# Entry
Amino acid sequence: MRGPLAGCRVIELSHIMAGPVCGLMLADMGADVVKVEKANGDDSRRFVPPDINGESAAYMMMNRNKRGVVLDLKSEGGKEALRRLIKDADVLLENYRMGTMEKLGLGYEELKKINPGLIYAEISGFGRTGPYAERGGFDLIAQGMSGLMSITGEAPGRQPVKVGAPISDITAGILSAMGVVAAYVHKLKTGEGQKVDTSLFEAAIVHTYWQSAIAFATGVSPEAMGSAHPLNAPYQAFQTLDGWINIGAANQKNWEKFVDLIGAPELRYDTRFAANSDRIMRRHELETELNAIMCKRPSHEWLAIFDEGGLPSGPVLSITDMHNDPQTIAREMVPEIEHPIAGKVQTIGLPVKFSETPGGIHSPAPLLGQHTLDVLLEIGYSKEEAEALISEGDIVGENQLKRVDQ
# Structure
């Protein structure tokens, strides 16, 4: 294992997205992440189509770099296997509903008796405290309740629009990974474990920093404004002769550079748009002036002009266009990996680069129960004990049964 977290062992009891995002971030940075699934696997294994040779594309994306075992946590054999896993682990990650782990006898208070240095990371819909603590959580619900959907969309009064990506799920996973790493640093210094608790709700709230600042200062909730920015203008998408491009003329210097590059230097001296505050107050007038100019040339011509002039700008790419962009490729953000059933598959790479301890993608998502036997042997079970657990149904994995029989 490579990466700055090499030597850290994580037991992942999570499913779908937020928890698996945390697990894959830690795994990509070198942690040994053992994913514990139920007998029929993580629900994302059934998120098809699309699939590649019968393997869920969604599952493979979220679970690369992990080892997979199957435990029945309702059985005593499965619980005991998990306790043995926990004994020498650094982190347990779970995203069950509040009280689920406690009912199984596997809550933090019980597990820290086995391992006082355990970092117990929880991701939930609304966090483990407060009036909504027992509610389940979904990205759509979090986006709506956080205020994000009120500021997303073309204009006020239109149908609510969520951010296209499941941003609260993904951000909750990243925040949890950040919390785990911080707690791991503390553990290395003191030997102490602790709980780390975050939620989809809080993950969505942190995306409202600018809009919350405006609301705190004015007492008025900002509203949807398309691609425009509430604090800078022009900073938005403009339609060209053949498509859309983004323009980032977000300060006075770039504003003056922008109007010169589009051949409208007179706008620099137009008192309506003299300062950023003026441009924000008269945003619609400004858009009318600029749209009349931007629609006269195709996107590639404008982008060449802006690139030559040093103005922040860029195309609005599709997902597949982004995959093929030379910068995406240069930053190793679409690596390819060999899966035993799906064959060669592409995934999204590690977005943090380390000069001395590089992380990366080294193994595909596990088949259901693929590493069950290996992990059981690692934590002290004999081959005969493992065979008994599998035959009793406490630990499941067809491919592992075949290996034991051999």
Remarks:
- The chain has two domains: 9-206+326-405, 244-315.
- The CA atoms of residues 98 and 134 lie 6 Å apart.
